[in-house]
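Single Protein Entry

Contents — chain, fold
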Amino acid sequence: MTQTSIAVLLTCYNRKQKTLDCLDTLAQQSLLEGIKLSIYLVDDGSTDKTSEAVQQAYPQVNLLQGDGTLFWTGGMQLAFSTATRDRHDFYLWLNDDTLLYPTALKTLLETFHQVAEQGTSYTIVVGSTQDPQTKEFTYGGVLKGRWFHPCQFRWVKPIDQPQRCDTMNGNCVLIPHEVVELVGGLDLVFRHYAADFDYGLRAKQKGCTLWIAPGYMGTCDYNHPRLRKQTTKSELSDQIKKLEQPKGIATEDAILHPFWEWKTFTERHAGLLWPIYWLLPYRRMVWMTSFGKRKEQSA
C-alpha cells in the first residue's frame, strides 16, 4: 500500500496546555491505513516550559526553537521550510489552540481527493472551526466582498459538501506538495496577521483552487480582541504608537494591520486603486486626530 505523508505545522508561545491539548487531538485522529503524520512544532521562546512538556508527552515531535520574535508567520514558515526539506505529500497548517475532531484529517483528505478527481489537484482544502461552547463559526474559508472593495472579505460557513472560497484563515489548512512547489512559503513581510490571506490569494492567482471541507473540523475560540471606541486624541495617539507592532491594533470595528504590511497586501491584491484601499482602514484615525486638534484649538 502506498503511504501518504502529512507534515503537521504548528507554532506556539506560552500556552502550554492549549498546545498539549492540540497535540492530543492529533494523536486521536481516525486515519486510514497508510497515513503517516510528522509533526513540526516551533516554540517561539516560551517561558512556561512548553518545550519540556511536549518532549515528555510527545517525543516524536520535531521541536524547533525560536527566540520570541517570530510571531505566527515566522514560526509557521520555520516549520514549513523545515518540513519541505523532508518532502511530504501534504502540509497541514494548524493553530495550537485548534482542537480537531477525530475525523478531521480524514475529511480533509477525502475532500482533496474528491476535488482532485475533477481534475483540480492543485487545490488547498480549508477546515472550518467553531466556538467550543456556542458552536458558532469562528474561522475557515473566506470570499472576497463586493467588487468595488477587493480588500473586504466575508467568511463562509461550511455545509455538507465542498464549496469554493477565495482565501482562508490559517487555523486548519491542508496543502498538497504540488501547491507548495508552485506558490512557495509564507511571506515574512506579514509578521502575524494577513500572511494566510495573502497565501490563499497568491495561490489562486497562480491557478490553484481553494475548497472548504464539509462540516466543522474542530473547535477554536475567536481570539481577535475588540477595544472600546477611542474618544480622545490622547487615547488614539497611544494606539497609533502600537500600529507598527506585529499584531497591529484592535479597534471596535476591526484589526488595523501595521501600516507597511497592509501597503504590501493592497499592492498585491487591490488592483490599480490600491492606494485608496491601503489608506481606507486608517481613515477614522486620521479623522479623530484632526478632530482632536480642532477641539484643542477651540478650547
Residues 241 and 249 are 9 Å apart (CA to CA).
